[in-house]
Every structure is written in structure tokens, then in C-alpha cells.
Amino acid sequence: MGLFKTLLGKGNDKPKKEEKVLPWIPLTSLEQLDEIEKRSAVKTQFIFKHSTSCGISSMVIKMFSDRYSFSQEEADLYYLDLHKYREVSNETGYKFQVMHQSPQLLIIRNGSTVAHESHGAIMEVDLGKHI
Q1: 15: which DSSP letter?
Q2: What is the pLDDT of residues 17-45, one digit of tens each?
Q3: Rg (CA), the chain
Q4: Half-sphere exposure in the Cβ direction for 10 (13 Å, CA)
Q5: CA 46 – CA 36 distance, rounded (Å)
Q6: Contact yes or no for 117/64 (Cβ under 8 A)
Q7: CA angle, 99 as apex, 73 and 45 as ends, to 5°?
Q8: What pLDDT band is residue 3 in, cutting at 50, 70 and 90?
Q9: What is the pTM assigned to this prediction?
């Protein structure tokens, strides 16, 4: 009987891992890019460009979310759905002088991109050194 419960998914009393909720700020307008530039003078600004149709992007954003540990006082964390807000995605690249990639993380300080990575390399960025 225990075998059937296991095979059918019953009897698994392991607690589910609680997903961390990050303080994402949706990046949806061109005006926000000017705000990010200004705010970067006093606080680190992270922009995560995410492709909702890409499996790699979904995997990387989950891994990024699992390791992100900064408060809203330490940094602002922007989420950009690059399919839904393509114009904003394009302008982000122009404004912050970074060629488009997906997924992509931009770190903005004092109005400039101080670091950026894409795909799996996002996980290698030492986020703490930019706070």
C-alpha cells in the first residue's frame, strides 16, 4: 500500500520549500529609466531582463531569486518583461550602453552600468560588492 501511495504522489509528507518573494519593481515605462539613473547616485539599481518564453531565462531568474538577499533599503530590484515591454528593453540597452541579451542582469551605480552579465554568468556576479 505504501508503494502505491508513493507512486501516486500520496503519502509524501515532506514540507514544500517556501518560495522567496523578492521586492521586484516592474519596469514598464521609459520614464523609469531616468528614475533608475537618478536613484543610482544613492542606491544600487538592479535590472533583470527576463524572457518569459525562454526556459533558460526562467531557470536563471529562479536561481537568482533564491540567492538574492538584499533589502529594499540596500538596492532597488527591477523586473523587465522584455516581450511585453520591448521598447523599454531596447532603450535600456541604449541608455546604459549594454548590448541586449536575455536573460540579462544590469547593475547601475552613479548613472552607469558597473556590471552586467547574461545567461548562467548572472550567477557568478558578486552582487554584494556593488551594494
Answers
A1: P
A2: 666 789 999 999 999 999 999 999 999 99
A3: 18
A4: 6
A5: 9
A6: no
A7: 5
A8: very low
A9: 0.84
Report DSSP state, residue 53: T
| Residue among 108, 44, 116, 106 nearest 80 (CA) | 106
Q: What is the rounded CA–CA span in Å between residue 131 and residue 128?
A: 5
Measured distance CA(18)–CA(43) in Å, rounded: 29
The amino acid occupying position 5 is K
Contact of 98 with 82, CB cutoff 8 Å:
no
Q: How far apart are CA 105 and CA 49, in angstroms?
A: 6
Record the cell numbers describing residue 46, joined without a space: 538592479
Is the peptide bond prior to 103 cis by the omega test (within 30 degrees of 0)? yes
Helices and strands counted in the chain (H then E)? 4, 5
- Please state, in angstroms and rounded to a whole number, the distance separating the CA atoms of residues 87 and 99: 14
CB 76, CB 107: distance < 8 Å? no
Give the confidence band of 129 by pLDDT, cuts at 50, 70, 90. Answer: very high
Are 41 and 110 spatial neighbours (Cβ–Cβ below 8 Å)? yes
